[in-house]
Amino acid sequence: MKLHMNLGEHSYDIVIEHGVLSRAAEYLNLNRRVCVVTDSGVPAKYAETVAAQCRESLTVTFPQGEGSKNLDTFSAVLSDMLDAGFTRGDCVVAVGGGVVGDLAGFAASAYMRGIDFYNVPTTLLSQIDSSIGGKVAVDFHGYKNIVGAFHQPKCVLIDPDVLDTLPPRQFANGLAEAIKMAATSDPVLFELLETQSAKENIDTVIERSLRIKKDVVEQDERETGLRRVLNFGHTLGHAIETCEALGGLYHGECVGLGMLGMCSPEVRARIEAVLRRVGLPAEYHGDAGRILEAMRHDKKMSGNSIHVVTVPAIGQFTFENIPFGTLAARMKNILE
């Protein structure tokens, strides 16, 4: 299956095929120097499969985890490319999850003011969310994605077969983003996640999730309006993730928790149930003061208010500009 992201001169294909990893050269221009970026948590065979199809490859591997998504690793990737003589005609291929995609894409956006970038996501979360849309970034001073750019990939290859090596917790972590998109935009997908096995219906989950995000990005590439709907659950979620630092909870787990304070009581009950059903946490008891302070650094803050997404009913969403004090009071009810 092939979806096409319509963004004018920045348009690209999203290819969803079982086994496509071994046929990457059919879709990607690898007849040049290729920097294959991956991390230590990704099975090495995935990066090796891509590298074997390149005319000339450089593989850069950094330690897995959010702790590597920083300017030091960003600098190391650029240094390796520079030392290897990469030019504007060469490219970067990310083989891994969201951390790899974000960091590799940011490196591609900055090297010689921008070179081609391909994304080959290997986690469910990155396959249904972070691999498309062009948002690339690193964390800085403990705050997520605070330094970055928009740099659309030239193509995205999604091979559901690579999910077979994904631990159950990481699989559930990815489902949080599917729940997020279904809650705001797709009652059919939400009901599937409530009543059926996500693993047995993974092709449908991936496709429907991608179609939601594709439609949103096509209408609002730079997040000036509609694209903010994709931030549902992320205001509190990012704050929890910041306070969890280098361990604790995964991104999707934090987003799942972040949705609970941004919806009607009826929706919250359904989201809590589906979170538990797929193996995600549905409650959190952290340091409310630290989390609320982290929320003050959210990119959506404007003056003393913050722009948030709320869900009054499954398949519906609203945008609200809420005074920070009002939001803080609402979040305390979730955290205590």
What can you see in these coordinates?
It is a single chain. The protein has 336 residues and is α/β, with parallel strands linked by helices. It folds into 2 domains: 2-165, 3-Layer(aba) Sandwich (Rossmann fold); 168-335, Dehydroquinate synthase-like - alpha domain (Dehydroquinate synthase-like, alpha domain, Up-down Bundle), CATH 1.20.1090.10. 42% of the residues lie in helices and 20% in strands. The chain is built from 12 helices and 12 strands. The strands form 3 sheets. It has a 7-stranded mixed sheet with strand order 1-2-9-6-5-3-4, sandwiched between helices. Strands 10-11-12 form a 3-stranded antiparallel sheet. It is globular, with a radius of gyration of 19 Å.
Notable features of this structure?
336 residues, alpha/beta, Rossmann fold, Dehydroquinate synthase-like, alpha domain, 2 domains, seven-stranded mixed sheet, three-stranded antiparallel sheet, 12 helices, 42% helix, globular
Layout of strands and helices, then pairs:
Blueprint lengths: L1 E4 L6 E5 L16 E7 L4 H8 L4 E7 L8 H13 L7 E6 L1 H13 L5 E6 L2 H7 L4 E6 L2 E8 L4 E4 L9 H18 L1 H9 L6 H18 L14 H11 L6 H9 L5 H14 L9 H8 L5 E2 L2 E6 L7 E6 H12 L1
Classified in CATH, the superfamily of the largest domain is Dehydroquinate synthase-like - alpha domain
Q: What is the C-level CATH assignment of the largest domain?
A: Mainly Alpha
Topology-level CATH name of the largest domain: Dehydroquinate synthase-like, alpha domain
Strand content: 15-25%
Assign the structural class, choosing from mainly alpha, mainly beta, alpha/beta, alpha+beta, or little secondary structure. alpha/beta
SSE order, as H and E? EEEHEHEHEHEEEHHHHHHHEEEH
- Average of pLDDT: 92
Estimate the global geometry from the Cα principal axes: globular
How many β-strands, per DSSP? Answer: 12
- In CATH terms, what is the architecture of the largest domain? Up-down Bundle
State the share of residues found in helices, binned by percent: 40-55%
Report the biggest beta sheet as strand number plus sense, adding barrel if it closes: 7 strands, mixed
pLDDT < 50 runs, ≥5 residues = none
Distance between the termini: 45 Å
Count of the domains: 2
Compute the CA-based radius of gyration: 19 Å
* Count of helix runs: 12
Strand order of the largest sheet: 1-2-9-6-5-3-4
How would you describe the oligomerization state of the chains in this entry? single chain
